[in-house]
Specification:
98 residues; alpha+beta; Alpha-Beta Plaits; two-stranded antiparallel sheet; 2 helices; UPF0234-like_C; C4-dicarboxylate transport protein; DUF406
Length: 98
């Protein structure tokens, strides 16, 4: 399984996933993008269900979730975008996936 979450625009320290002291959260980046390849459709759907559960756990207002599951030569790809009402929720969601 190959997975990746879109990096936020904040500068992070690789050792601890911490932001620089000067980073300001200005609600300009409220989305988190997920892309991963799974061996079959059931595994991709299970992953989407878990990601959705994680998003619902941190949302204060309903998170907008757009997803696409497509089959390819390397397996079944899940692509999803989670749009939160504020940047802090997006960051909490992303940090929870690490």
């Amino acid at each position: 399984m190959t997975d990746a979450i879109k990096k936020c625009s904040a500068n992070e320290t690789a050792a601890c996933c911490c932001m620089d002291v000067g980073t300001v959260m200005d609600n300009s980046d409220c989305t988190a993008d997920w892309s991963a390849v799974y061996p079959d459709r059931a595994a991709a759907e299970a992953a989407l269900a878990q990601l959705t559960c994680n998003a619902r756990a941190v949302e204060s207002e309903p998170c907008t979730i757009e997803s696409e599951i497509s089959e390819g030569a390397d397996g079944v790809r899940l692509q999803a975008t989670f749009t939160f009402s504020c940047q802090a929720e997006s960051m909490i969601f992303q940090l929870g996936l690490r």
